[in-house]
Amino acid sequence: MPSVPLDGDPVPDDGALPATALDGLGDRPFGMYVHVPFCVTRCGYCDFNTYTAAELRSRDGSVTASRDTYADQAIGELDLARRVLGERATPVSTVFVGGGTPTLLPVEDLGRILAAIDTRFGLAPGVEVTTEANPETVDADYLKRLRDAGFTRVSFGMQSARPHVLQVLERTHTPGRPQQCVDWAREAGFDHVNLDLIYGTPGETDADWKESLDAAVAARPDHVSAYSLIVEEGTRLAARVRRGELTPPDDDVMADRYLMADERLTAAGLHWYEVSNWAAGENARSAHNLLYWTGGDWWGVGPGAHSHIGGTRWWNVKHPAAYAARLAEGRTPAQAREVLNEDDRRFERILLELRILQGCPLDLLDDDGRAAAARAVAEGLLAASDHARGRAVLTTRGRLLADALVRDLT
Fold first, then answer.
1. Alpha-carbon radius of gyration of the chain
2. 181 close to 138: Cβ distance less than 8 angstroms
3. How far apart are CA 149 and CA 231, in angstroms?
């Protein structure tokens, strides 16, 4: 949930969607994203819409927003969502609680939000319910109660196994804690557990990255997400790079680290299904993220959360106090929206579907795009066999150049 401001069109106070957005609702997968915007501390690299307790106090020391009341506010937005979607509302196939640090909330609050989704929309059979978790905010008992509340999947932010790398990232957990959390999650009955890793941190060596990969694999999660570090403007990390205290990530090093990850994770039985994600079989893949990547519908609850229904995208006001005030006034918390035209939707399909294992259909491309795809096959960026059957599917080398390839295809 990056903090970049966006422009868009006004949203009616009641949150009503264009009639075109509701056409086909129910024909596509429908998910719920719940953003919990609270953190104990802000990591130096983080550009997400998150707030520490100090950042939620006014100059006179009064609290402008509190996590104690957040569950009720989120449930208030769920009531709004039910009114907006009306009889066309469909059971929810995936729920993802992200942040921030969702596990700063009591399990009871997370359970109440999930129960509210169920009572207002229904949970589809086999629903996937994920929460992100900071390893330092959970223990065996918390995870057991989380599983009992209906959560089926948990994602731990590991980032690295090396203390000096965690220090640069300003991560607060200690090495080994994420692996312990995986054990606790398994004991609690979670079948699906993810570890998040980051590579390319200033000062990280190949040996450091290998140790992190080995530690993650040894914990035996059934899913790993590995992301290259992005130095976002406005973060403390960006300021340190700008002052020359840290060396910015190198593109060639990033590529080498990605290949190391792919080789190590594949050898451990975790296979790529999206450029930055590896899973131990289809059942272990993130159904919620696949919903994003394949053009599904979702309602985003919480400050700064983004939603998409039938080609209409909107985003909520960012600050928790402004979010709470809008709901208290009976108004939508949406700040602005945009209605995607056919060209926009085609571009997004290419951008997102190219990144997944199945690739995107060549018939999405115009004549120039199909010519570029043929060149990409010759250059070893797209798989020749898949191209012959009408799909653009990235090779390993193509995954390293996916962003540039999208520009060529579109």
1. 21
2. yes
3. 37
Q: Report how far residue 85's alpha carbon sits from residue 78's, in angstroms, rounded to the nearest whole number.
A: 11
- Name the token pair of 381: 């960026």
- Please state, as a whole number, how many other Cβ atoms lie within 10 Å of the Cβ of residue 344: 13
Cβ neighbors of 350 (< 8 A, separation 6 or more) are 360, 364, 365, 369, 406, 409, 410
Spatial neighbors of 10 by CB under 8 A, at least 6 apart, are 336
Residue with tokens 């012959």: 388
Which one-letter amino acid corresponds to residue 27? D
Where b means 16+ CB within 10 Å and e means fewer, 293-317 reads bebbbbbbbbbbbbbbbbbbbbbbb
- Cα–Cα dist 223/59, whole Å: 43
Task: Report the relative pairing of strands 153-159 and 192-199 from DSSP bridges.
Answer: parallel
pLDDT confidence tier of residue 40, bands split at 50, 70 and 90? confident
Going by C-beta distance under 8 Å and a sequence separation of 6 or more, which residues neighbour residue 293? 274, 352, 353, 355, 356
| pLDDT, tens digit (0-9, with 9 covering 90-100), for 347-394 | 999 999 999 999 999 999 999 999 999 999 999 999 999 999 999 999
Residue 236: name the closest of 156, 317, 171 by CA. Answer: 171
Query: Which amino acid, one-letter code, is at 36?
Result: V
Give the span between the Cα atoms of 407 and 90, in whole angstroms: 35
Closest of 50, 20, 25 to residue 38, by C-alpha: 50
b/e code 153-188 from CB counts within 10 Å (16+ = b): bbbbbbbbbbeebbebbebebebeebbbbbebbbeb
> Cα–chain-centroid distance for residue 100?
11
| b/e 227-249 (16+ beta carbons within 10 angstroms → b) | bbbebeeebebbebbeeeebeeb
| Cβ-contact 353, 359 below 8 angstroms | yes
Q: How many residues does the chain have?
A: 410
Question: What is the Cα–Cα distance from 392 to 382, expressed in whole angstroms?
Answer: 6
E strand or H helix that includes residue 226: strand 223-228
- Average pLDDT of every residue of the chain: 94
Confidence (pTM): 0.95
Structure tokens at 176: 């080994």
How many of the other CB atoms lie within 10 Å of CB of 257? 27
